[in-house]
Design brief:
Order of helices and strands: HEEEHEEHEHHHHHHHEHEHEEHHEE
Number of strands: 12
Distance between the termini: 54 Å
Shape: elongated
């Protein structure tokens, strides 16, 4: 057999194996992201905003994605929804959602997922809501876009009920007319009262917009807003920050999505409102069985809300574990630095830990481990070889040479 043919066959087999490894999917997971890479092509150079990110989410789970501003958290979320705008582009990886690779879908198919199966809450609700439309109209639009068939079914049932009631009233009026001479005054009054009652309680004439508005009122009540009817008629600028965020959450949950992405939903709120929103999200997660991807730089929010945590640094995941394991036994030097910098009553006589240096420029990221210029535990190999994710405990992964047996004898950088 010709050597070139052999090589070609071998390459094709390798490509097939790589493709197979990308599309394998664990049915227990709702979301699986593998080797996701998203770049922004600017005049200065290529910004590697997300560079080889991999993680998964189970069904009915809250996963925290934590890291400094500019580390790629929001770009990861926008990549999941395929809302990365030019000059940004997803160049590699797979995003498996409920068994479907979202990167293989056409734009039309992807629109079916957005707002229905996957929804997103942004950190500034005032900029996310349309300032010239009433809140009710904006929530109703979600129902009209993604639950039109259900609304049409409700409308059809109401028409049938209305016709049935109409026939019933007509029959009673006919009976009153034909039997009037034979009825006693009491019987006549009873029949008239029954006709009046049926007319008063008759199903109102409605259209799809009316039904969507009614459903909007129900979902607004679910997020803890008492005066639902009044709020629906208001405009976004007439509401407080906490109210606006509740409206955004109600829009996100209106179609009972499988995945809700919350991009720093409590950043612009004061502490008391922040606590209320977090409690609300816990309650709604149980009620609607929705998985939540919580994006934040606040470790307090992570500790309060999340089941598992992915720590992100400079476009990469450096540690991935359950919230309990991460806080009790952090492994990566960056994670230790983040946790050590949290103010605490127990540390009132101690100086807070700080992470020296600055976040790297993602156009010219450091070679090897991206954290090595700021790391106090740096090894000589850290600036040469990019670390791979190592399992250091039960579902506890860390991307650091300190825990890789291959580099355990590597000398410390002087």
């Amino acid at each position: 057999m010709d050597t070139s043919v052999k090589k070609k066959t071998s390459v094709e087999a390798d490509e097939k194996n790589q493709t197979d490894s990308v599309i394998t999917w664990n049915s227990e997971n709702l979301l699986e992201i593998k080797n996701l890479k998203t770049n922004f092509y600017t005049e200065e150079g290529i910004v590697k905003a997300v560079d080889g990110v991999s993680f998964d989410m189970s069904r009915n789970e809250i996963l925290g994605l934590v890291g400094e501003t500019g580390c790629g958290k929001s770009v990861t979320a926008l990549s999941i929804l395929r809302l990365v705008r030019p000059p940004g582009k997803i160049i590699d990886g797979s995003i498996m959602f409920d068994g479907v690779n979202l990167l293989d879908l056409t734009e039309g198919q992807m629109r079916e997922y957005r707002g229905k199966d996957i929804t997103m809450i942004f950190q500034d609700p005032l900029n996310s809501l349309n300032p010239i439309l009433q809140v009710g109209r904006q929530i109703a639009e979600v129902f009209l876009l993604h639950q039109k068939e259900e609304l049409e079914e409700i409308l059809e049932n109401r028409k049938l009920d209305r016709n049935k009631e109409k026939q019933e009233i007509k029959a009673l009026e006919e009976e009153l007319k034909t039997k009037k001479t034979r009825l006693t005054k009491e019987e006549e009054k009873e029949l008239e009262a029954e006709i009046k009652k049926l007319k008063e309680n008759r199903t109102k004439k409605s259209n799809l917009k009316d039904i969507a508005w009614e459903k909007s009122e129900v979902i607004i009540k679910e997020v803890g807003i008492a005066d639902a009817k009044g709020i629906l008629k208001r405009y976004p600028h007439e509401l407080s920050g906490g109210m606006r965020q509740r409206v955004m959450i109600s829009m996100g949950l209106s179609c009972n999505p499988k995945l809700l992405i919350a991009d720093e939903p409590t950043t612009a709120l004061d502490v008391t409102i922040q606590a209320q929103i977090l409690d609300l999200m816990k309650v709604l997660k149980k009620k609607f069985s929705t998985s939540i991807l919580m994006i934040t730089h606040d470790l307090g929010v992570i500790a309060e809300l999340c089941d598992r945590v992915a720590v992100m640094y400079s476009g990469t995941i450096v540690e991935y574990a359950s919230a309990e394991n991460l806080f009790n036994n952090p492994h990566h030097p960056y994670t230790k630095g983040l946790i050590g910098s949290i103010p605490s009553i127990e540390k009132k006589d101690q100086d807070l830990l700080t992470i020296r240096g600055m976040v790297p420029n993602l156009i010219y990221p450091p070679s090897g481990c991206r954290f090595h210029p700021r790391c106090d535990y740096r090894l000589e190999t850290c600036d040469k070889v990019r670390p791979t994710s190592i399992e250091v405990g039960d579902n506890h992964f860390v991307a650091c040479h300190l825990f890789d047996p291959k580099y355990k004898n590597s000398p410390k950088y002087q």
